[in-house]
Amino acid sequence: MKKTSKLVKIKSILAVVLILFTVMMSLPVTTLAANNGTLNIHKLDSTGVTESEKEAGKVYKEVNGLYHAYLENAAYSAYKIGTFEQTADPVKVTYTPVSGLVDKSGAAITELNASTDPSNIDVAGLNVAAQGTTTASGPLVFGNLNEFSVYLIKETSLPEGVHGATDFIVTIPMFNKDNNTWEFSVDAYPKNTFANASIEKTIVSGADGSGDNIFYANIGDVLNYQVKVAVPSDIDNGLYTQFNIVDTSSQYLQIDTATITVKGTPSAGGADYVLSVANGDFTVDYLSNVLTLSFTDTGIDKLGNSDTLQVNYDTKILEGAMNEKGGLKNDIALNLKTKDKDVDPIKPDPDKPTPVVKIYSYGVKKLGDGGTPLADATFVLAEKNSSGDYTYLIYNSTTGLWTNASSIDNATPFKTETSGTDINSEAILQFRNLSKDNTYYLFETSAPTGYIILPNPVEIIATDASTDKVYDSFILNDTTGNYDYVAGVGFSKTIENLLESKNPGILPSTGGQGTYIFIATGIALIGLAAFLTIYYRKKTNA
């Protein structure tokens, strides 16, 4: 019997092991495994057509609802310029340049990041990892690229009449935020056009970037905007009569026209050239938040076919900027005319949107018993000074500026609501224009009826993530052009208080008949003690 029992146990264990092995074999592998990658370069005609407009015999790629034909005879080379390591958070990686990587001035490049200029990397000392020429039948494929590597992609030759693309950097693999995975097959879309120009814009200093041209800053910060223009490949034909760069910005962004610089980079190589107002190359007009750089005939004559223009200027974030839903935006356009044609305004490609600046913010939500929004809780905001003491703050809701209060009683009160609209309907408090990564303290100064005040302050720290949640409270309605409120997203922390009846630390209430009973009992006990003391003294003396 014992032998049979052991055999049954062994069979049971083997069955469990078999089941576990089957389950484990069926699980998908989601970690980064050893795997070389592929880069697919889609060289497309910039002129998109509809389904019915496609020409027979051509191969097309659908992009944003339009079909673009593949272009042939554009040559590309890939250079390995670095490697990267995965940290605990797979989105955040550490980049390490390859040994000997230098820029065009010969200076060593010691780090690779979002601000690394691919066009300034010297490839003379680098080996070509892959190279090839596009065809009209589909993408150019670079296979067997090293994993966890960073590559510089350069366009080395073009078909006649096609505008050149700028150099760009890719990683193998590349992280896809949409599905939270690393992809070893990477698609790239160099933006070239026949004769037409292109334009794009970003921020190169003064703000913190998070990708997708989203930036974070504070009121009073000065940002340096950079506009890059790909000059038409037929600019030398003398037909162009207008070449204007037009920047339409938020009312809370003030451009300093004295800081405008313009330089050109010849497509054929050679030294950069400078254009200026002083030399009569262009004029500057800035009115009602619209900046226009109008190039003169003199300036247009200095532009070469397929050259790249780089325009930089400083812009200050003005008071009140925290109230602009959706963030501070800029629209950029290139307006061209020829002697025989008005060209539609050229705007950035959809995959290269103009920058949006968000003001650092933080949201909290007050909850009552049962997790429901709780009204009538009042808070003040404070931060610690150099002495370690709390400095309470005053907030100007018009300017968005914070100043020091003389005491907690003079600080700005923030009171939760549940009967209003938008955030006020959810007992959400949002604090805007906070300093990045600075620790602030929320003191509850008044609790709703039936609740107790928090015994300690609540710490909050403004980050990119907390700011995104505040701005996610409103989403642009493309139909109406207005911003619609989005419930349940505008906060990073919930604050919940106990009911008085549920708090074990509350002392009994005083007053009423109960008080008199306690007093009478106390007097009686004191009297009894006095009587017994006198009685025993007399008895002792007797």
Explain how this protein is built:
The chain has 542 residues and is mainly β. It has four helices and 36 strands. The strands form nine sheets. Strands 14, 15, 17, 20, 21, 23, 24 and 25 form an eight-stranded mixed beta sheet that branches. Strands 27, 28, 29, 30, 32 and 33 form a six-stranded antiparallel beta sheet that branches. Strands 4, 5, 6, 8 and 9 form a five-stranded antiparallel beta sheet that branches. Residues 507-539 form the Gram-positive cocci surface proteins LPxTG domain. Keywords: Cell wall, Membrane, Peptidoglycan-anchor, Secreted, Signal, Transmembrane, Transmembrane helix. Residues 36-193 form the Gram-positive pilin subunit D1 N-terminal domain.
Tags for this entry?
elongated, Immunoglobulin-like, 4 domains, 8-stranded mixed β-sheet, mainly beta, 542 residues, 36 strands
Total count of strands: 36
Low-pLDDT residue intervals, each spanning 5 or more residues: 6-33, 506-516
Please identify which CATH superfamily of the largest domain we are dealing with.
Answer: Immunoglobulins
Tell me the CATH architecture of the largest domain: Sandwich
| Whole-number tally of structural domains | 4
CATH topology of the largest domain: Immunoglobulin-like
Largest sheet: 8 strands, mixed
Determine and state the CATH class of the largest domain: Mainly Beta
Helix-residue proportion: 10-25%
Percent strand equals 35-45%
Based on CA inertia axes, which overall geometry fits? elongated
Radius of gyration using CA atoms only: 34 Å
Helix run count: 4
